[in-house]
Amino acid sequence: MDIVFTSEEFAEVERFKSLYPQPKAAIMPVLWMAQKKFGWLSEDVMRYVSSIMNLPYSHVLGVATFYTMYFKKPMGHRHVQVCTNVSCMLRGGEDIFNHISEKYGIGHNECAADGDISLEEVECMGACGGAPMIAINEDFYENITIEQIDAILAGLK
Amino acid sequence: MYSVPHLVLPQISDLHKLDVYVANGGYGQYRKAITMTTDAVIDEVKRSGLRGRGGACFSTGMKWSFMPKGNDKPKYLAINGDESEPGSFKDRQIFEYNPHQLIEGILIAGYAMGITKAFIYIRGEYHKWVRLMQEAVDEARNRGYIGDGMKQTFGGNYTLDIVVHKGAGAYICGEETALMNSLEGDRGYPRFKPPFPANKGLWGMPTTINNVETLATIPPILAIGPEAYSKIGAPKHPGTLLYGVSGHVNKPGVYELPSGTLLTDIIYKYCGGVPGNKKIKAIIPGGSSMPPLRGDEIEGVMMDNESLRAYNTYIGTGGIMVMDEDTNIPKVLLRISRFYHHESCGQCTPCREGNGWMEKILRRIVKGDATSHDLDVLFSVASNIEGNTICALGDAAAWPVKGFLTKFRSDFEACVKPTREFLSPNIAHGRRQSAETLIQSV
User: Complex ipTM, two decimals?
Assistant: First the structure.
């Protein structure tokens, strides 16, 4: 895919810039948009963002690597995030992580060879009341069992 | 709309819809506020005794009064919805069930401090709640409750607009100065204070940062009156709090209750007790950075900041984590330390390096590979992080380590050996022997 935004997306970038007193602040929403479109933030994508934002590449790289949710390598279509922080750990989060890891043969921050599924052991997602929880892409699944996860993942193919 | 204790989350269905909110008297408190002087609004908040809900428990009215008067330069309001503290999941309820009360709180705060632009910073993981909040803000703007339409809806010349900003996964951005750097488009590194945000905040302009729950509490305070509000719950930390209960309880979730509610009432009366009627081993009262309580000392503990201080812990964000008698305490602490090591921004050496050391030592302890000396090293590393960093993340990492080590010493001692057993023979010792033999032979 060519790394280039459409004119609608350029308009969106300009809108983001207009929301803040200084256009630099739009970098986070623009990186979100770039990740959504291109899948992950490769060096080329970051260089492209730096050119349209008029910011040094080093700055874009610094911001992109500071935040864990910007992918610095390709991730799967189904990005499975398993929380193993305290509340989820107490209710079996680690077993869930190990189950998915063994079933698909991928570890933390790894993606299956066909790009279909990737796994990440995440820190607290703010769903402690629904522990154990996983998130697949942008959706939360709370109070979940291993059987339910298998069913959900089978349904999302 | 408001009946104690349901002030922040009134039990009205579909309250997230603007029409339902307005039909129940919504935006009425803002109408009332603009008939008062700005000083009178700040004074009401001061008299209510409201203390910030983000964890530091600072007086909200006092914070507002620090903002300089006059309109010679722009002023900003940042709303902290980054809640990333393990065990906290309260602001999410406000985004989902009562976003317009938050917007009304922002309007009142903005009017009181003469602010015309507010930024709601929501953590990136909350995709759905960012969307819900954005929808509420857009609806309010389209219907003239924020933005230029306010002049027509409410009269007067005052307008305020709100931008919803999505984070991207960094716990540190919940720290107010890191949040400002993140909003400005930089890495989320905390800034040194002073200068304080009220003097030099976002883009160098006077800025106030308030927690989501704090601002959502403002409309009910004006509605029931500051005196009535200050009489709810504990006198020194009044009002209702959103307690988020998780871990080993039958009914985990967010409960809005008066401050100073008995911890045992929260666990047994509201959350249905511990599964399998097990005993409680430990409780973290306010999110993972707060020192824990032992299960045998929770009788009579009241959940407000002043009462918890007597037990050397704090209310934090009100995220209560309950652990039953079978919990492996060193493993829990390892998980907490791993979190803070991962989330340290790396600016200050004690936090960046110390958190790594603490994680390594705890890993050894959990593996059964540590000696009792390691426990002392762990405690001293924690003591050397605490108070020696720019922001409070260092303290947040040190407190649970020191708290767990002090209160559950026997659990840790059960995991360690008295001395280290060496697998290979001591090479230095062997060489000395041979040297001595050498001298003797000469």
Answer: 0.97
